[in-house]
Design goal:
- This protein has one helix spanning about 45-70; strands spanning about 75, 75-80, 100, 100-105, 115-120, 125-130, 140, 150-155, 165-170, 175-180, 190-195, 200-205, 210, 220.
- It has about 220 residues and is an alpha/beta fold.
- It has a domain at about 100-220.
- The strands form three sheets. The protein has a seven-stranded mixed β-sheet, with no helix packed on it. Strands 5-7-9-11-13 form a five-stranded parallel β-sheet, with no helix packed on it. The chain has a two-stranded antiparallel ribbon with strand order 1-2.
- Strand 1 (about 75) and strand 2 form a beta hairpin.
- The longest helix is centred in the N-terminal third of the chain and has 29 residues, at about 45-70.
- The protein is globular, with a radius of gyration of 24 Å.
Length: about 220
C-alpha cells in the first residue's frame, strides 16, 4: 500500500545541490603509431615496443576518463541534475497533489506510512514528506527513475522519530536528497542507498541517516 502526504507549508529543507564541477579529465592521446628516434641507431623492436606501450597507456587513460565521465553525469546531464519530468494526470498515490511534474506524497499524521513501502510514480519527480510522529518510521521509500527524489523528515514538533529506521532507495539515474529536521530521533538509524547520480543529506538533528554512496558521482552526508 502506498501513502502520500499534504504539501509542505514552509520550506524547511535546503535543496540538494551537489557540486557540478568539471568532469574528471584524462591525459593521454594515442600517437600515430611510429616511434621517434632520439639517437643515431634505434632498434625496430624497441621502437615498436615503445609505441605499443604508449598506446596501451593512452588507452588506459582514455578508459579511466570515460569511467569518470560516466560516474559524473547521468543521461548527458551534469552530476546532481535531472531532466524535467513529463508529469501528466496526477496519480492517486500523490496525496499531497502534483505541481509542475512533481508528485507530493504526504505522510504527516501519526504512523501514517509506518512500515509501508512508498513507491514514487513513474514520470514524476517525487517529494515524500514525513511530518508526524513515526509517520515514516520503518518505511521503504522507492525513488523514481531518472527524476529528482526528495524525502523531508520532520519539521513539526510532533515529528518525533518521523523517519527512524526508514530506508530510502534512490534510483540508479535520478538525484536523491534527504532532509532531517531537529525533532527527537527524526532520522535515527535511517539509511539511504545512493544510485549513480548526486546523493545527499542535510540535518538539523543529531540523528543522521547513513548513506551508502556506491557509484554516486557526488555523495554528501550530514
Amino acid at each position: 500500500m502506498v501513502v502520500a502526504l499534504p504539501a509542505l507549508g514552509t520550506a524547511l529543507f535546503a535543496a540538494c545541490s551537489p557540486n557540478t564541477g568539471d568532469l574528471f579529465g584524462g591525459g593521454g592521446t594515442t600517437g600515430s603509431g611510429g616511434a621517434t628516434s632520439s639517437g643515431t641507431t634505434t632498434s625496430p623492436t624497441t621502437s615498436s615496443s615503445s609505441a605499443s606501450s604508449s598506446t596501451a597507456s593512452s588507452t588506459t587513460t582514455t578508459s579511466s576518463t570515460s569511467s569518470a565521465t560516466s560516474a559524473s553525469s547521468t543521461s548527458g546531464l551534469a552530476c546532481g541534475k535531472a531532466p524535467d519530468p513529463p508529469g501528466g494526470t496526477c496519480p492517486a498515490v500523490c496525496t499531497g497533489g502534483c505541481s509542475k511534474g512533481e508528485c507530493t506524497i504526504s505522510c504527516d499524521s501519526v504512523q501514517a506510512c509506518r512500515n509501508l513501502t512508498i513507491a514514487c510514480p513513474a514520470g514524476f519527480a517525487c517529494l515524500v514528506h514525513c511530518g508526524g510522529t513515526q509517520s515514516c518510521s520503518g518505511a521503504t521509500i522507492e525513488c523514481p527513475d531518472e527524476y529528482q527524489c526528495t524525502v523531508e523528515c520532520g519539521g513539526t514538533a510532533a515529528a518525533v522519530q518521523a523517519c527512524a529506521q526508514a530506508k530510502v532507495a534512490c534510483s540508479k539515474t535520478g538525484p536523491c536528497y534527504v532532509g532531517c529536521a531537529a525533532e527527537t530521533q527524526v532520522c535515527d538509524q535511517a539509511t539511504v542507498s545512493c544510485g549513480d547520480n548526486g546523493c545527499s543529506a542535510a540535518c538539523t538533528s543529531t540523528n543522521q541517516p547513513t548513506l551508502a554512496c556506491g557509484a554516486s558521482c557526488s555523495c554528501k552526508g550530514c
